[in-house]
Structure formats: structure tokens, C-alpha cells
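[Solved] Which block belongs to which protein?

Original post:
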Amino acid sequence: MVTLNIQSLTAGYGPTTIIAGASACARPGGLTVLIGPNGTGKSTFLKAIAGLIPATGSIALCGLEIPQRQRSKTVSYMPQDVGGASSLTVLEVVLLGRLRSLGLSVPAHLPTEALALLNRFGIGHLESRSLDALSGGQKQLVFLAQALFRDPDVLLLDEPTAALDLRHQLVVLNAVRDHARERGVVAIAAMHDLSLAAQFAQEIICLSGGTVVASGPAGDVLTEERLRDVYGVEASVARTHAGFLSITPLRPCA
């Protein structure tokens, strides 16, 4: 099993430490959701795992530590902000996910695979459209398809549903969870919607103050006491008729 082990991870920007000695474990075959208040270091945590910023500590797959310079070969990272102008078509952007394996010509099967991913997200009809012509939510779906198309061992997604409507939130999270199951991938997504996180996560990692304060199944992590301690809110945690946890914030703590 391609288990991701994170030990004593410390990272920041310049003299400012954002993540301080965080340790966690993420198993393959499902979605691990990273939660925590604004400014607690979720994006920094993901960037440090991906090797995009300087960090200390250990990042290991199957017990073997991955040096920072080699993580781009095994880790696919989609940032929170996928903005930017490009005249490339949607299909071309997805194909760039396999840039390392592309030569002077594109093998015939790759566009077919890329289009299948676009269809999975309901945007196959946009394959020939310029990226510049898309809405923010559509761009997010394109770059998510690109991240999956890379076929990594570890998939890191920073708020992948932030710009999406309700239907596409469900489409995306189902697709990511299914992809992780089918490919045995470690998938970690930072999210703010705790009810949605509880519905899709096999495990939740909770960050607060730059370190991991809890991890495990949603029912163990998302308690009223922890929401009070971490988010500073009084909240109701209950089971829906479908069996999922539903988190309703009631009021800020005094």
C-alpha cells in the first residue's frame, strides 16, 4: 500500500514559520480531507508535501523517504488559485499533465484518455475551447482533470470545490474518491465545507495553530468540543437520514 507518512513537518515563508512539527498519515484508496480555520496553514502544508517550498521533516511513501527534488515525479498538486491566461485549448491543458512523457508527437491513446476525464467532470464538450474563454469554475475542473491525468501516487488538492456549484462539488468529490480507489492513490484535499468533508472523507486531518491536532474518521474528529476549540464556534453535529454527519454552526464562542 502506498501510504504517505508525514513526520515533524516544519515549513513557512522567510523567517515566518507556518507549519510547526506536524505529523500525519494518509492511506491510499480514498479521500483524506484536510480541515482547519483560515490562516492555519492548510495550503502551506500541501505545498510542503509537494516539495514546492523549503521544509524540514520527513515525507515518505511505503516507508521510503522522498527527497524534495524528486517529489514532482510522484506528487500532483492543484493550487487553490488556478487563474491565469492561456490560449491553449482545454484538451491541451489536460495533456500537459503528461508533459514528461510527451515527445515530438502525442500518442493516439492520450487524447482519448484525457477526453474521458473531461467527460467524467461533465466538460468534455469544452475540449476545443480556449482556456481563456472559461469561467472560474470550469477552469477549476480542467486543472483538476490535469492533476488526475498525471496519474500520480499522491494527489494534493487545495480547495478543489471552492468555485463550484452544488452539483459539480459532488461530481468532483465522487470522481476524486473513485480515482483514488481505482488507482490506489493517496488523495488529500483541503476543504472548508465540513459537512461535505464528512460525507466523502475516509479520514480527516485537522490543523490548528500550524500543527495536526486530530486525525481519524469524521465521527472522531468532527465533535462539537473540537469545533469549539479549533474554530471558536458553537456548532451542532448530527447524523442525517442518509447516515452522514451534518455540521451546523450556531454562533461564535463568547
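(Second protein starts here: sequence line, then its C-alpha cells.)
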Amino acid sequence: MDNQQIEVELLKQAQAGDMDAFADLQTRLDAAIRRFVWRLIGTSPEEDDIVQDSMIALYLNLERIQPADKLRAYLFRIVRNRCYDLLRKRRRYEQLSLDDEPVEMWASLHASTAVGQPEDVTHWLLLRMEVQAAIDRLPELQRQTLILYAEEGLAYNEIADAMDTTIGTVKSRLFYAKKTLRQLVNPDTLQLLEEGLSSTGEKESSQEMSHA
């Protein structure tokens, strides 16, 4: 039984009133929630509040998660809305154009072109930092879509549910996000990134075929 199947089973038990099952579910989901919060708003003293509020909202709406395999999409939508509330308080959206291309590129990302050996842990950490920095420069909705797709492993339909949009819009945002990343990331890093996204895309294709 894989992780998703375990989560679905725990959700069904929680929907039937099993509080221990919900506690187990909360433990399993905690790391993913915190990672998503961090990627949306960065390090924040409000992180614990967002996580707690999101789990309370999930508990109060357990019966609405149908079918049960939509759990993560439903949860990420709750977390995203909580993060939005916080960002609005910070007045961040006064400066954001959510779907436009960035006006300027981050030239510093091109400063380092030397690629070390893949076995070098430091090298891989630097690559990860470069990619994350580039992703953080994307327009907000493209950034969130790419995070859910590449980092959280959600399928197109799950992202559409989480972001309250269509599958076509999800695909479009991913297309433009990857197009922008090609301008932000040096070619060697880009090759590694695209290999990772390709493997995610292969998983998506297999999921679509299994549901056909």
C-alpha cells in the first residue's frame, strides 16, 4: 500500500469518526503542509498558525472530500488560501501581477556557469538553491503551479482542484513557467531541471492513461 492509499484509508476512517485516524493523517501531512507554506511565504512566525488553521478547516470539512483521493488537492487549496490571507495582510499583492511575465530577469543567476561533479553534495545543494531562487522569481500563480507539480508531485487535475482553475490553465501556467526558467537558469542547471520535470511529466502521462 503506497502513501496515497494509506492517506485515503485514514481519511475514510476519519470521516467515519475515528479521531486516531485523523491524528495519524495529520502527522503524515504535516511535513508537506509546512514545505508548501515555506515555499509560498518563506520563513514566517505565522507558519504554525497556518498549519493548525488548515488542519482545523480540514477536520471541519472532512465529509466534503469526495472522492477521498482528492485529499491533498483539497488540503493544498486550504493552505493556499490561508497563505493568501497572510500575504494580503502584508500588502504583497499591491506589487504583484499574478500572471504577467517578470519585467526583469535575475542576472545573478547567470553569474556561475561552472558545473561540478554530480557526486559533490555541495554542488547539488547549490543547484537546488539556484533553481529555487529562479522559481521564486516567477509570477505568483505560475510559481505556485510549478511548486505543486514539481515539488509536491500533484497531477494536473489535482492542481486544478487545489487552485480552483481548469486543467488547461494549469498546463498553460506550467508552459510559461518553464519558458521563463529557461531565461533565469544557466544551461547546465536547466538540463538537469528539465530531466526532472520530464520524469514528472511521464508520471502524469501514465496517470492520465490509467484513468482513460
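Accepted answer:
You had them paired correctly. Confirming on the second one: The first helix runs from residue 3 to 15.
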